[in-house]
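Task: sequence design from structure.
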């Protein structure tokens, strides 16, 4: 008959190992809190130990009150704005007209005073700019309907037209690629070219 001897630690049940792990975590947390209390605040070692004990034994009263006092110190009076503008970023997937019919009255009831309409390639550009309009762009009649619904709900419409950066929808096209600030990036327009001014002016005139 043979007997196999094992180290006592190897025989410890899972529950005992878990308790040891929890004890180690508590000790580490205590040491971290003690170090923070002595480094961030001028406390004696005895005061630091007492502070850590308070945190560990009564966290709601200590931490919560500290948090509340910090919040109170940051509290600012409410800011009143005369204008409350809602931004519509329409590139890629423009909403159907029925959406505007429903959402504009709701926005007005919620206190909105205006709309910032970022059309980009959803605007029905014509003439030399016709290539800027996407295949699913709004028609002129669609734009007229959107503006009419906005007026009916007393919402000021502010068209947002990119004039220097975020011009990928135009500069990605071959016919305008020479106007890029950086040849391999269609994001920004080169402001030192006369043709750049002509493009921006034409966009502003149409929108």
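Answer:
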């Amino acid at each position: 008959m043979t007997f196999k001897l094992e180290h006592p630690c190897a025989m410890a049940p899972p529950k005992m190992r878990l308790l040891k792990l929890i004890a180690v975590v508590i000790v580490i947390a205590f040491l971290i809190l003690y170090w923070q209390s002595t480094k961030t605040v001028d406390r004696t070692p005895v005061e630091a130990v007492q502070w850590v004990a308070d945190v560990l034994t009564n966290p709601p009263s200590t931490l919560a009150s500290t948090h509340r006092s910090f919040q109170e110190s940051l509290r600012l009076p409410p800011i009143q704005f005369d204008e409350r503008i809602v931004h519509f970023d329409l590139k890629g997937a423009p909403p159907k007209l029925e959406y505007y019919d429903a959402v504009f009255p709701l926005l007005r009831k919620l206190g909105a005073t205006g709309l910032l309409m970022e059309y980009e390639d959803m605007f029905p550009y014509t003439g030399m700019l016709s290539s800027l309009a996407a295949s699913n762009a709004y028609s002129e009649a669609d734009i007229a309907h959107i503006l009419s619904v906005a007026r009916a709900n007393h919402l000021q419409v502010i068209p947002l037209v990119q004039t220097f950066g975020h011009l990928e929808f135009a500069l990605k096209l071959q016919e305008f690629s020479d106007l890029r600030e950086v040849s391999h990036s269609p994001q920004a327009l080169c402001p030192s070219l006369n043709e750049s001014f002509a493009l921006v002016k034409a966009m502003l005139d149409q929108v």
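The radius of gyration is 33 Å.
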